[in-house]
């Protein structure tokens, strides 16, 4: 008699003694609205949600990028499952060549642009590790949002010779204007939620 199907549970995180893969994580771990759960080089990485500046920038940028991307026949999403071989990435935002409608994951080969919002606790991951992996997978563009003393800046990098040199950059109060992979313009300062002084 076959064993009953196991309900997805985080309890398995401490018991599995073989390397993790994207498919294993999708099969064995539950869908949830808690921390990000990614798979990188055989290990599960659990990351709590970042602060409100990060979340505000992610919400605003994904929405505005989606509007611009749709005009160019592409789709933008915040925090979705992107599979690269056995790795499972959840970038802060991604622009895809085709819709992810009805899917749980999308292959990294469908990504035109992947983006990270730098968190103080994950700076190395957001600035060095992730861009390196995205470049190795051939993602044409990488976008990074950074906050220094709550002054947001936005940088677009374009893949060249396996690396991401910057091609467009602007900080709050300036205008970030890109032409590729589609036209998009924003003052990075608009990514933060600032309370009206009268309220």
UniProtKB/TrEMBL annotation:
Keyword Hydrolase in annotation: yes
Matches recorded under Pfam families: Uma2
UniProt GO molecular function: endonuclease activity
Alphabetical list of Gene3D superfamilies matching this protein: tt1808, chain A
InterPro entries: Nuclease_put_TT1808, Restrct_endonuc-II-like, Uma2
Domain of life: Bacteria
Location of the Putative restriction endonuclease domain: 28-185
Tagged with keyword Hydrolase: yes
Keywords: Endonuclease, Hydrolase, Nuclease
Protein name: Uma2 family endonuclease
Organism: Krasilnikovia cinnamomea
């Amino acid at each position: 008699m076959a064993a009953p199907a196991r309900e997805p549970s985080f309890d398995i995180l401490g018991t599995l003694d073989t390397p993790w893969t994207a498919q294993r994580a999708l099969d064995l771990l539950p869908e949830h609205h808690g921390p990000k759960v990614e798979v990188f080089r055989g290990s599960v990485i659990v990351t709590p949600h970042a602060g409100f500046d990060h979340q505000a920038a992610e919400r605003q940028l994904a929405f505005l990028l989606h509007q611009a991307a749709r005009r160019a026949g592409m789709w933008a999403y915040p925090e979705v499952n992107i599979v690269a071989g056995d790795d499972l990435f959840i970038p802060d935002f991604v622009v895809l060549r085709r819709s992810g409608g009805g899917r749980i994951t999308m292959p990294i080969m469908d990504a035109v642009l992947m983006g990270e919002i730098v968190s103080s606790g994950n700076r190395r991951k957001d600035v060095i590790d992730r861009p390196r992996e995205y470049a190795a997978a051939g993602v044409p563009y990488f976008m990074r949002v950074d906050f220094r003393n709550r002054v947001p800046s936005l940088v677009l990098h374009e893949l060249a010779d396996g690396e991401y040199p910057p091609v467009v950059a602007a900080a709050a109060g300036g205008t970030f204007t890109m032409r590729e992979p589609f036209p998009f313009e924003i003052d990075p300062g608009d990514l933060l939620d600032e309370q009206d002084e009268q309220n």
